[in-house]
UniProtKB/TrEMBL annotation, chains A, B:
It comes from the Bacteria. This is NUDIX hydrolase. It comes from Parahaliea maris. The keyword Membrane does not apply. Keywords: Hydrolase. The lineage of its organism: Bacteria, Pseudomonadati, Pseudomonadota, Gammaproteobacteria, Cellvibrionales.
Length: 181, 181
């Protein structure tokens, strides 16, 4: 951030009075420009025991498989956002959404919220950000080609929970991944 | 938003290519400036069966009682943010945090995340945004002086859940309140 979005003058990083951390503050109008974590909402859609995954048509992790998810928009609920993303990426209508898994990803200031859901009519397709979508049995999941750690972990937990017949809502943190080598 | 925070030129509201809603786009550098919902994290702190509430020293809802909560900051987890707010507003050290209640508040583009927690040593005080803090038995809760609908609802549910001995994680949406009159 270089300029004030209110008045167009320069901003400087400083600790405002009464605050305890640096913010971008306008040198002219003194507006404080906060930046906050972003919420990513998505679904874990299941139809007849199989999970719907999308193969990404875009970077990052192009050609890897993911659950439909994306940035929550202003004015929507987290569930509505998760259903919207499922429609946009997998052309599937999410039904019976149940909050399932929350991940904090503090090093990139994101929170993921995944809902379990059904798929209306079992119908799906591929939106503009997906090469294809497909339903996978547990044994067919392409574990080595999953796009993101949060997706891998949510899927592993889902199949474990399914064996137990219980789907508790969990929250945990994903730390920065160390690259091998 | 009037100006581009990257280059300082004007922004205009338009639908970027491949998008489906209006964004602030810079007329010069073409940066797209997204705005997204903000996350408010807080605690429902309990010590020896009593719930810790803070009486607000600031607007909105000055002098009304609330649970300690505030905007999640970049680089922290939701639980760390909830504990931070509990320290800042009630000078209480939150321990044993358990995710409890999520509220979508779409008309103001916010998500609340409340954690149940204990209070280390039962010690608390009042931070700069609080007039005072106090522990309340259920029968003592000042129900007519609760600052926000999400706090009222979380407290009601907490006491109901306590009677059942189960604390399921819930998510629901709070719609715009109609003013009487
Ligand atoms: Zn300014
Ligand atoms: Zn610009």
């Amino acid at each position: 951030m270089n300029y004030c979005s209110s008045c167009g003058n320069s901003v400087t990083l400083r600790i405002p009075e009464g605050d305890d951390r640096e913010r971008y503050v306008c040198v002219s109008c003194e507006a404080i420009h906060y930046t906050n974590p972003r919420v990513i909402v998505g679904c874990l859609p299941v139809h007849e025991g199989r999970v719907l995954l999308c193969r990404r048509a875009i970077e990052p992790r192009r050609d890897f498989w993911t659950l439909p998810a994306g940035f929550m928009e202003n004015g929507e609920t987290s569930a509505a956002g998760a259903a919207r993303e499922t429609w946009e990426e997998a052309e599937a209508k999410a039904v019976d959404l149940q909050l399932y898994r929350i991940f904090d990803v503090p090093h990139i200031s994101q929170i993921y919220m995944f809902y379990r859901c059904g798929i209306e009519g079992g119908a799906f397709g591929a939106g503009p950000e997906s090469v294809e979508s497909a339903l996978f049995e547990e044994a067919q999941i392409p574990w080595d080609e999953i796009a993101f750690p949060v997706v891998y972990k949510a899927l592993k937990e889902y199949f474990d929970d399914r064996r137990k017949g219980e789907y508790p809502v969990r929250v945990s943190s994903i730390e920065r991944l160390r690259r091998p080598g």
